[in-house]
Write a structure and sequence with these properties.
- By secondary structure, this protein is mainly beta.
- It has five domains: 167 residues, Immunoglobulins (Immunoglobulin-like); 107 residues, Immunoglobulin-like, CATH 2.60.40; 117 residues, Immunoglobulin-like; 123 residues, Immunoglobulin-like; 110 residues, Immunoglobulin-like, CATH 2.60.40.
- Helix content is 3%, strand content 42%.
- The strands form 13 sheets. A seven-stranded mixed beta sheet has the order 2-1-12-10-14-15-8, with no helix packed on it. A six-stranded antiparallel beta sheet has the order 5-7-6-9-13-11, with no helix packed on it. Strands 38, 40, 41, 43, 45 and 46 form a six-stranded mixed beta sheet that branches.
- A hairpin with a 5-residue loop joins strand 3 and strand 4.
- The longest helix has 22 residues.
- The protein is flat and about 100 Å long.
- It starts with a strand and ends in a 14-residue tail after the last strand.
Amino acid sequence: MSIVHKDKVMDLPQDGGAEYNPLMNLIGRTIFIVLFTLAVGCGGGEDETTTDDGTTDISPDVSEDATTGDEGLEDGTGSEVEISETDTEEDTDTSATDAEPDVPAGSTALKVKIDDKYLSADYYELPSVVPGVLAEARVKVQIINEGSEALEINGASLQPYNDDGSPKSVWVSLDYLGFNPKQSFPITLAPQSQDASSVFTLEVVYAPKAFDINMSTLKVLSNDSQNPEFKVRFLTPPVAPEVRVEPADNLFEKATLSNYEERIFRIFNDGVLPLKFVKLVFAEPTDVFTIVSQPGLGGQVPPPGTPDYKPLFFTIRYQPTYGSVKDKNVVLLYTNDPNNNPVSIPLEGTFETDQDTSPCILIPPSQNLNFVDFSEVESGSETKTVTMKNVGKKVCTLNKVELPNDLNGIWYNYSLMLPSNIPGGAMEPVQELPISFGAGKSVLIQLTYTAQNTGLDSELTVEFEDPNPATSILNVVGGGAKAIFDYAPGLPEEPAALQFAGATQSSVERTFVVYNKGDANLLIDSFTFSENETPEFPSNYWQLKGFFAFPIKVKPNRVKAFTVEMATGFEPANPEGTMTIDYLGNKGEASISVPLNGIVTTNPPTLPQAKPGGTEDYPGLFAGGAFNLKGAATGNVSNSNGYIWYLISKPANSSLVLNGIPGPANLEITPDTAGVYNLSLTVKTNDPIPMYSPSSSVIIAVEPPPTPEPEPEDNP
């Protein structure tokens, strides 16, 4: 950046150094005096004085107090004026624009760009930042000359008090980027039309350690005739939650009369206070849209950047009926966001009823499940009813019912019944197929599952005509041996967030584990990583470390550890994302979503250190005997709830599970099988925004339980 100083011509590097050229100084002064003498002769109005070195100095008449009360300001000119209309735009929702302002010819024109956009108002809203030790946001401010004559900048600083009398925010400061404001003002900026590199750049730094509603005012003093005192207010973000729902609307494209469709919505918080869920309601009465699941009353989403940040979820089901034609509704989400309450999420189905058909639909036993669930049946038999209903206007004909992988009826048997026309009356058995039934009528399929040594999943397959031949299939989950998914740190229904804190241009690793608490193989189908800002795209930050062939098998009573790696990138950031694990468990296909939080700083952050002890600290352990773990840590870690223990590996037959719920340093555990256990410890600080340590592990050897000595026989 080339800048002309009052006393010398210099290239201003980051450290503010300069080289002085006496010859160029003399030439510059001579040209400067001649030009201003001509200007005074034509227009007048300036005061002429003689400087100490004998040269003539012509400058505007300025007020003495123009330079008082500002940080880092030693010299400057200007008088108290409002920002002119050339620097503001009315009826606009933003304070910055890409458009270049109009400038009259033959003048100076101080203009300001913020983050490379022209300032179009007298204020700028700072980015939202969660207060904390590492919280920081920077805004680039560029002062340029859009006029046709040289512009002299005499000072740039933050006012201790704003024009409304309020003090400036204590968390807002200026970074002059190596420029020395006490020694280097004034500076001269050439017109952009002559030298596009003649720009004075500084940064406004917002680093809140606590909440603060005060704004800060940047004042720039110059010889610009329109704006000798240019001011812009930097507004701190509102102290409130800010709700965001994804997707913002939804189209249901797969639902039919026989099969409903469900969509999951995520509730995010982009504000700086916790977001609290209040309620979900439909804008209009509906019999086709249903709220299947929603957060509990008082459910919260903490501010972004906190280690336990994760969105809330709700599920909407669309089940069209005969007569449906592109059903529409709006679901209203009420929260404690004062600026967006309620949030309206439009819903629309694409289904249109074909008036020439008489559709038959299969209705599962539970409205909350789209399959028949016998997964909990470990012995004996259980019967559940599936309803085949004619929701059309013509005759429906049921031709065949079967479970293809159990034609001999070892696990599954069924009977067909007709409901009574009289309330409370007895059902009538269906004697043979095919059977036809009219509009509004039903056939009941009573399905019975009998437990065997091994379980069996199947498909209830129904062939019918309405009037065209068609087939409906309903999945059936049997009991018996099943895989049972478990997770650490946290629980499957509430997995703990994984925090990745590190410096730029580095990588950070975090470990999590999957337990199989069942008696059949657990199959993990996929790991998917996304960022909350762009959930539809793969993450640029996170990936699973290592190579795996899917599906990944976890044997019964085993645990498998995985490592997630985050590449921090080149710039400080606070990315937030989600890891989705898809698996096949005891309820069929399922998934969990694990929150991911990144803290990327220029310098390596100070993290606590976990100390789980060494093998030598755990002597004489045996299966069935309880003992206390011996954790320790560096940093501000609570002894009661700052320690997160979980297993990395264990003996093949052990059913021990540690879920990594934050607890005490000396957690008591009871190993149930002799062998080698590998335990991992992570600690978290007791700060408003906790920092998590890298994990550290210890290997513990457990011996078989001691054989009791035989009691001595009594001698007669």
